[in-house]
Amino acid sequence: MEYLQQRHSGMAGTLTETGGFEQQAVAQKLYGRCPEIFRQKDSKLVSSRSTNVHRVIQSMGHFNASLKACQSDLVITMLTGDRYWDILCHDTSNLENPYSERQEAVRDSLVKGYVSLLHPEFLFKKPQMYS
């Protein structure tokens, strides 16, 4: 924990170096696993949107830079602002959602997935509380 504290001191609200590398890796995996998305004959346009949260804008930049490195002829546009918040925010409880009955199941599966990746047994005395 001390190592993490020192490494991320002064980084509140911004993307860490590790986070930037992770965004780049996600873009590379997407490009490698779904090549048909990027190799369409008449479409080289990638349109990106983010909220106005600084860390999210940085994530979008890292992701797009990595895509551009994979395929230099992509034309990437990036827009950010409050107008995208309702679409991109994590909390969709204020939105009408025809799939709302599935929302809790999806949320539960995501939480369980993240918890298994974080290995709470190394951090907490009673990790079963988090699974």
Model description:
The protein is mainly alpha-helical and 131 residues long. It is built from six helices and two strands. A two-stranded parallel ribbon has the order 1-2. Helix 2 packs across helix 4. The protein is globular, with a radius of gyration of 18 Å.
Quick structural overview:
This protein has 131 residues and is mostly helical. 52% of the residues lie in helices and 9% in strands. Strand 1 (45-50), helix 4 and strand 2 (75-80) form a beta-alpha-beta unit.
Summarize the SSE layout with pairings.
Elements: H1 2-8, H2 17-33, H3 35-38, E1 45-50, H4 54-70, E2 75-80, H5 85-88, H6 100-118
Parallel strand pairs: 1-2
Helix pairs in contact: 2-4
Overall 3D geometry? globular
Computed over alpha carbons, the radius of gyration is 18 Å
The computed structural class is: mainly alpha
Question: Which strand order spans the largest sheet, edge to edge or round the barrel?
Answer: 1-2
Unreliable segments of 5+ consecutive residues: none
Please give the number of β-strands. 2
Report, as a whole number of angstroms, the end-to-end distance.
Answer: 22 Å
Strand-and-helix sequence, N→C? HHHEHEHH
**Tally of helical runs:** 6
- Kindly estimate the percentage of residues that lie in beta strands according to DSSP: 5-15%
State the helicity in percent bands: 40-55%
Mean pLDDT across every amino acid position: 78
In this structure, how is the largest beta sheet organized?
2 strands, parallel
Descriptive terms for the model:
52% helix; mainly alpha; 6 helices; two-stranded parallel ribbon; 9% strand; 131 residues
